[in-house]
Amino acid sequence: MAEQRPPAAPTTFEQAADAVRAIEFRDDLTVHEIAAPQGLAPQALAIAGDVRSSPDEADSPYGTGRLVLLFDPEEPSAWNGPWRIVCFAQAPLEPEIGIDPLLADVAWTWLTDALASRHAGFHSASGTATKTLSKGFGSLAAEGDGAQIELRASWSPEGAIAPHVEAWAELVCMLAGLPPGSEGIAMLGSRRSTRG
């Protein structure tokens, strides 16, 4: 039996963009292309993802994320290569979970584990994980306490781009409380705080 090799890195930005657009995401993660930020690289593609219990939901009470694929043939020194992925993911949490001192570490581990599970090699990674606790006062007192986790990360991908995007999608779902393999399981009514 021949050894399976990971998919090769794209040779053009168009190939990478086509690979991202061809990804089929789980049904409870709605993903669409958005305008890419200007000035970060000569070529860029951006997508947004929202965890929803049904496609008809207007806003996601569960979690959201953004991913930007950047390409610069000049290979910026901080990237150590021509490709860079920048991602953002956030989700509301139960206040009891928000006070966990290891929450930020866990969020970063979920990202690196998702990349590793897809054999998505990377280098030059950086990021922040931020947890926010909030309490309503005055006319917002009825909303009660809230918590939120937010992860911002960037890394230089090795090999094919699609596994990196799939890992980001898994991260968004994990932060929203949907572990891998939970597709098709009905989401319960949101008991998570929508304050952030």
Please state the CA-atom Rg, rounded to the nearest Å: 18 Å
The coarse silhouette is: globular
Structural class: alpha+beta
- Helicity level, as a percent range? 10-25%
Oligomer: single chain
| pLDDT averaged residue by residue | 85
**What is the beta-strand fraction?**
25-35%
What strand order characterises the main sheet?
1-2-3-4-6-5
Termini separation (Å)?
A: 52 Å
Strand segment count: 6
Detail the poorly predicted runs: 187-196
The biggest beta sheet, please? Answer: 6 strands, antiparallel
Question: What does this 3D model show about the protein?
Answer:
It is a single chain. With 196 residues, the chain is an alpha+beta fold. 21% of the residues lie in helices and 32% in strands. The protein contains four helices and six strands, in the order αββββααββα. The chain has helices spanning 13-21, 95-98, 103-117, 162-175; strands spanning 29-34, 43-51, 63-71, 83-93, 122-135, 145-157. A six-stranded antiparallel sheet has the order 1-2-3-4-6-5. A hairpin with an 8-residue loop joins strand 1 (29-34) and strand 2 (43-51). Helix 3 (103-117) packs antiparallel against helix 4 (162-175).
Give a quick summary of the entry:
The protein has about 200 residues and is α+β, with helices and mostly antiparallel strands. The chain is built from four helices and six strands; from the N terminus they run H-E-E-E-E-H-H-E-E-H.
Structural key phrases:
196 residues, alpha+beta, six-stranded antiparallel beta sheet, 6 strands, globular, disordered C terminus
